[in-house]
Design a protein that fits this description.
about 400 residues; alpha/beta; Rossmann fold; 2 domains; 5-stranded parallel sheet; about 45% helix; globular
Length: about 400
């Protein structure tokens, strides 16, 4: 993987962002001993196994952020050292790797894992070690009480479910609804919330199917859904491969209902699109961060995401075309957010950083737009930061997806 020492003014951009954060929040003095040590940042993707493609995105985003910060002088005089782990796409390994990074490698901050199945056991380990952690987990089980130092760079299953149901009922105006989800914790949380929201709107599911996480074949589930013939299928997935299997199978059997997916469908869409026919996305809608979307009146190439995409392409050209750029940007933002917290508090401890994210994290400008964490919710994005996009695989030249209805 090639690396560039100076990334199109990236160092200046980070210095300006850090200065803004400090101006808003208030700076901290730098202890001499603190400034001499490297800050050990743990990165825990699925580097091998079925989740390796999404793990590569985490790695690229973290490496770009760290490169920029180190080029700008580090954090309070400390250069960041990335200490790497690998979940091997396995929840048990995720927990043991988190323990190794914290107890043996002495990391101070943990980025990853990505998905709920791997994140939940890792959060238990990070909580015991009082290490602040950012994942992509969406399960509602990860409350601030369960993971006081854990934050999700995403939205909760409850929020995603409400956004999806409101769009289906209010905008698509359909009442015959099917549901397909994997058996992981995040998806099961989302299914329960979908049912709750549909009940509040006076609607019952026409058909529901569950599949095993990373299933070999989704044909039985797709054929069962097709027999019920719902107007819309709500789809929850945790991996690129499962998205490929579902959209590929619907295309193979010649059935194309409207499909409304959670944020993972938007994030994984470019990777899914490489393995399914283009028409498979014709009727696909999904939840997305507003910062990664555009309306027709929005000028092309002026967004923070477009700037990030260009920097990532220059930084890692050998992997750029193979990964989800939007997922990489989430972990880039995650590092920038937590390092702004270290700058502001002068500490890396979980308690201090968690309190800072709750109270002041929303003041730090990020690619994805505003965040809204609190002591009641450690999901960084609420309903006001989300939008619905149509055909998330159809990405404008600057990397943005078009918001539905504008």
């Amino acid at each position: 993987m090639s690396r560039k020492t100076h990334l199109d003014g990236a160092s200046r951009n980070f210095a300006m962002g850090a200065a803004l954060a400090l101006a808003i929040i208030g700076g901290a003095s730098v202890p001499a001993a603190f400034a001499q040590e490297q800050l050990r940042l743990g990165a825990l993707p699925s580097a091998t196994g079925p989740g390796a493609s999404i793990g590569a995105a985490l790695t690229a985003g973290v490496e770009l952020a760290v490169s920029e910060i180190n080029d700008a002088g580090g954090v309070l005089g400390r250069k960041i050292e990335i200490v790497r782990g690998d979940t091997q796409s396995n929840p048990t390994t995720a927990a043991s790797e988190a323990r190794r990074l914290i107890e043996r490698e002495g990391i101070e901050i943990l980025i990853g894992p990505l998905i709920s199945q791997e994140a939940v056991p890792a959060v238990e380990v990070a909580t015991a070690g009082k290490v602040v952690q950012i994942t992509n987990a969406g399960t509602t089980a990860l409350t601030p009480e369960v993971g006081p130092y854990h934050f999700s760079f995403g939205t909760s299953a409850a929020t995603a479910a409400k956004v999806i149901v409101d769009y289906i009922v209010d905008e698509l105006k359909v009442e015959s609804i099917g549901l397909l989800a994997d058996d992981g914790g995040q998806s099961r949380s989302a299914v329960a919330e979908v049912k709750k929201n549909l009940e509040a709107r006076g609607i019952q599911l026409a058909v529901e199917q569950e599949y095993r996480f990373r299933a070999d074949d989704l044909s039985p589930q797709v054929l069962s859904l097709r027999r019920a013939d719902p107007e819309v299928v709500i789809f929850f997935t945790s991996t690129v491969d499962d998205g490929v299997k579902f959209l590929g199978t619907t295309a193979q059997v010649g059935w194309q209902p409207k499909i409304v997916g959670a944020a993972a469908v938007s994030v994984y869409a470019p990777a899914i699109a490489r393995s399914v026919p283009a028409e498979a996305f014709e009727n696909v809608y999904s939840v997305a961060y507003k910062g990664l979307t555009y309306c027709s009146s929005d000028a092309e190439g002026t967004s923070a995401y477009a700037d990030f995409s260009n920097k990532l392409k220059a930084f890692a050209p050998d992997v750029y075309e193979k990964i989800s750029v939007s997922l990489a940007s989430e972990y880039y933002d995650s590092v920038k957010l937590l390092m702004a917290g270290v700058e502001a508090t002068g500490e890396t401890g979980g308690e201090a950083l968690a309190k800072w994210v709750e109270s002041d994290g929303s003041k730090v400008p990020l690619i994805h737009g505003a965040i809204s964490p609190s002591s009641e919710s450690h999901f960084l994005f609420g309903p006001n930061e989300l939008a619905i996009v149509h055909r998330p695989n159809d990405i404008r030249a600057d990397g943005l997806m078009k918001r539905a209805g504008c």
